[in-house]
Design a protein that fits this description.
TIM Barrel, Metal-dep_hydrolase_composite, Urease, subunit C, domain 1, six-stranded mixed β-sheet, Amidohydrolase family domain-containing protein, five-stranded mixed β-sheet, 11 strands, Metal_Hydrolase
Length: 255
């Protein structure tokens, strides 16, 4: 996802999460036991989904990288005793609206090291990223907000950042959410989303549960744009019966 500019905000040292940006590299014994590491997380249950590792071990960290994982005792300038705790890669939350210091604090306590608003998104993306850069406790990012693109084009009322909890999101002009877009407006909506993806958004965020005015052709064109830019689309689907197929099928066919 490097070309989508996922921002590395920090490397939080968690007993439940050692950071998704740094894969666990398994090493055992040998010279690792003789080294002195910056930090040692000792006696924790080390779990690595990628390799299948699941055992009590010690993690040696130098700088911002995991240097070794060993069943041998390790020496560290600082040692954290993780006995009876799990040491694992951090959790990735793709549906995070609380991208603020308090929300991130609680996410860190839950072992989240990457929090992305993938459905609501943000617009414009640049100030959203700038506001968190160097301050966030976790890795962060957002998609380009379809709701905000509709507001910009249909209501001439641009958002000012985080789409789903944007202070402007409760616009009194409901046309942005309920009115069908003309062909010209649809092209402008797609252009606005493309602009934000080029500026660093992680993809296209469609909260179509909240934009009943968005028709099939509009949504189809957004998927076409995503295919052209090779960016993902994250969708908050509309209310549906127990069988989700009808809600999905309505997006598959063009009018």
């Amino acid at each position: 996802m490097s070309n989508q500019k996922l921002r590395l905000a920090a490397f939080p040292l968690l007993l439940a999460a050692t950071g998704v940006a740094y894969p666990l590299r398994a090493q055992t014994g040998g010279e690792s036991a003789a080294q002195t590491y910056d930090i040692v997380i000792a006696n924790g249950r080390v779990m690595d989904p990628e390799s299948g590792r699941d055992e009590v071990a010690n993690v040696g960290i130098n700088g911002r990288s995991i240097a070794t994982i060993s069943t041998a005792k390790l020496k560290g300038r600082r040692t954290i005793d993780a006995a009876n705790l799990v040491v694992a890669p951090g959790f990735v939350d793709l549906h995070a609206h609380g991208q603020n210091p308090k929300g991130e604090y609680y996410q860190v306590l839950d072992g989240v090291t990457t929090a992305i608003d993938a459905e609501g998104g943000a617009m414009p993306i640049a100030p959203f990223l700038a506001a968190l850069s160097g301050k966030a406790l976790v890795n962060f990012g957002a998609t380009a907000s379809h709701q905000c693109a509709r507001r910009e084009v249909i209501s001439n009322a641009p958002c000012s950042g985080h789409g789903a909890i944007n202070p402007d999101a409760g616009s009194r002009d409901r046309r942005a959410y309920t009115a069908p877009a003309t062909p010209e407006q649809q092209r402008a909506i797609v252009a606005a989303l493309d602009r934000e993806v080029a500026a660093g958004a992680l993809g296209y965020g469609l909260g179509i549960e909240y934009t009943p005015g968005a028709g099939r052709s509009e949504i189809y064109d957004i998927f076409k744009a995503a295919a052209a830019t090779r960016a993902p689309v994250f969708v908050h689907v509309r209310s549906r019966p127990l069988d989700p197929a009808p809600a999905c099928r309505s997006r598959w066919r063009r009018k």
